[in-house]
Write a structure and sequence with these properties.
Thrombin, subunit H, six-stranded antiparallel beta barrel, 6 strands, globular
């Protein structure tokens, strides 16, 4: 069973949902992983079908063709999240949410739709996001981490 941080679980969930949406289906391990993640994010209210989100505090970047701004992610779940200290965006806008895990040299990138916008502190806003599509995970590091023959080509 896949276990990890909230960020890793959300990434894995979005990957599995994307695989289903693309029509590829899931094998038994994928089904088990999807069900386990859904159980971890089960809603507090049994009448609700919306998966819950977790309180988090992580720096991220929201960007699209007209913005590239730092935000603080304060809630994160399989279907979306909430960012504070965000720039002004229109409801319905599509953005990319980039969350870097510097310690692991990873960059998680989620495509999202802005579902609501509220006033936050100063001139900033709080935005609710709905994840769409399949996320991207970028592994980064220095050329030193590459095998010698690849490092020579990259230099």
């Amino acid at each position: 069973m896949f276990m990890g941080t909230t960020l890793e679980l959300v990434y894995k969930y979005r990957q599995l949902i994307g695989q289903c949406d693309a029509g590829y289906g899931l094998d038994f391990d994928g089904i088990d992983a999807l069900m386990a993640i859904e159980a971890l994010f089960a809603p507090d209210n049994p009448a609700s079908t919306q998966l819950a989100s977790e309180r988090v505090s992580m720096r991220a970047i929201v960007r699209n063709e007209s913005l590239d701004d730092g935000v603080t992610v304060v809630r994160l779940g399989p279907t979306g999240g909430v960012c504070r200290q965000a720039p002004y965006v229109e409801e319905g806008d599509t953005i990319e949410l980039v969350i870097d895990d510097v310690g692991e040299s990873l960059s998680y990138r989620f495509k999202a739709r802005v579902t609501s916008l509220r006033d936050d502190v100063c001139d900033d806003f709080a935005i609710d996001l709905e994840f769409i599509g399949v996320p991207l995970l970028v592994h980064y590091g220095s050329v030193i981490d590459l095998p010698a023959d690849v490092a020579q080509i990259a230099a």
